[in-house]
């Protein structure tokens, strides 16, 4: 049977069906294949196996006996989780002890907190919205009443050590076998997973959906969506927008020297844009950094013997082609173009036949998609002089938090 577990990154043992689904859903949402088994052995290939033992209301000895049958199904799992009820209902100690025995795990981390549902752990006690669980309605649950809030009491004579997230790593390194970890936030649950990861072997994790959510965040962190912004406008407003956005963490800027464009010395710009995107940053490409640059246009026209219109067309054509190459080399999640001439130059470079509008962000930035070309991801456009200083920063936040694929 062990060969069936080669692709089981995580095995979760739950004591009821809805709890099994609660444990697995965040792992499914982060891209894992999650299977919930009602019966074992389970032979199908899956990234995450969640086993429902349906044992919450059984006698402790019967619940433990069910766990002992699961040895073939847990073998080879990188992460082993005993999913428990966040209000301590069920046979937590009996099932945890049985699972530790068949898995051979030396250390156990118990962290029942589920902050999103108002369940926290403080000084080793389970609280529901700040009230000890045995003083809430769960104390009189018709099937599985909860008589105590002290988590350590569940394990009877077993020596449980109550620790905070700040001391968890140190106590784990000392070899303490049974740890109850206080947690009042998702960040603290994330820290528990991080501490467990550095143990060899990884401890048995005992927790509610909150801990399973933290494990999902650890195994498949959400990649921040990226924007390639191409700003050809020389307006003062556009420069203020660039400066504020570029000062934010995770934002790179690539200044295009117009003299390089006119002399053909453009090698390296594409590599800089690609590098910024590969590093996970937003990238702002622009041609103007100061007010003085706007007053150099006439001098450039005289030097190159070009009209202002010809100069603008040359720069825009370059930006359009550079954008096309950048999108082909390392596609971001969305494209932002500021300045009407630059926007149409980019559209032409991509071979677009039109534009479908689907919405607006930051009050002055329509977005949608190009039609008739290979670039199918969102495109945002903005007139150069429109908006306020925060407009481009607001666009970045929209990309990161709200824009769907």
Automatic annotation (TrEMBL):
The keyword Transcription regulation does not apply. Keywords: ATP-binding, Carbohydrate metabolism, Kinase, Nucleotide-binding, Transferase. It comes from the Bacteria. Residues 228-392 form the Four-carbon acid sugar kinase nucleotide binding domain. Residues 11-215 form the Four-carbon acid sugar kinase N-terminal domain. The keyword Protease does not apply. GO terms for molecular function: ATP binding; kinase activity. Belongs to the four-carbon acid sugar kinase family. This is Four-carbon acid sugar kinase family protein.
């Amino acid at each position: 049977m062990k060969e069936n577990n080669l692709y089981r990154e995580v095995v979760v043992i739950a004591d009821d069906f809805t709890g099994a689904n609660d444990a697995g859903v965040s792992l499914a949402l982060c891209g894992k294949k999650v299977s919930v088994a009602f019966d074992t052995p389970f032979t199908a290939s899956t990234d995450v196996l969640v086993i429902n033992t349906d044992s919450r209301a059984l006698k402790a000895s019967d619940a433990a006996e069910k766990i002992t049958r699961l040895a073939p199904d847990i073998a080879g799992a990188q992460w082993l989780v005993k999913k428990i009820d966040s209000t301590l209902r069920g046979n937590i100690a009996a099932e945890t002890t049985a699972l530790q025995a068949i898995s051979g795990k030396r250390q156990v981390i118990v962290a029942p907190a589920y902050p999103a549902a108002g369940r926290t752990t403080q000084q080793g006690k389970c609280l529901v919205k700040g009230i000890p669980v045995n003083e809430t309605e769960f104390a009189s649950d018709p099937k599985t009443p909860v008589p105590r809030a002290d988590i350590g009491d569940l394990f009877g004579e077993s020596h449980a050590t109550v620790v905070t997230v700040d001391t968890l790593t140190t106590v784990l390194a000392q070899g303490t076998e049974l740890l109850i970890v206080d947690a009042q936030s998702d960040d603290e649950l994330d820290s528990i997973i991080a501490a467990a990861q550095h143990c060899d072997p990884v401890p048995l994790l005992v927790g509610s959906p909150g801990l399973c959510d933290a494990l999902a965040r650890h195994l498949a962190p959400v990649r921040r969506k990226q924007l390639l912004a191409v700003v050809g406008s020389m307006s003062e407003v556009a420069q203020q927008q660039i400066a504020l956005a570029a000062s934010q963490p995770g934002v790179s800027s690539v200044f295009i020297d117009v003299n390089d464009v006119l002399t053909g010395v453009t090698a390296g710009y594409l590599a800089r844009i690609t590098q910024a995107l590969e590093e996970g940053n937003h990238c702002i490409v622009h041609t103007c950094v100061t007010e003085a640059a706007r007053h150099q246009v006439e001098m450039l026209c005289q030097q190159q013997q070009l009209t202002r219109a010809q100069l603008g067309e040359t720069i825009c054509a370059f930006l359009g082609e550079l954008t096309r190459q950048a999108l082909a080399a390392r596609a971001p999640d969305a494209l932002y173009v500021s300045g009407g001439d630059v926007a149409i130059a980019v559209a032409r470079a991509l071979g677009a036949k039109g534009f479908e509008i689907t919405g607006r962000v930051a009050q002055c930035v329509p977005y949608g998609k190009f039609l008739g070309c290979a670039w199918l991801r969102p495109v945002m456009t903005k007139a150069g002089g429109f908006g306020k200083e925060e407009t481009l920063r607001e666009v970045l936040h929209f990309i990161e938090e709200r824009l769907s694929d």
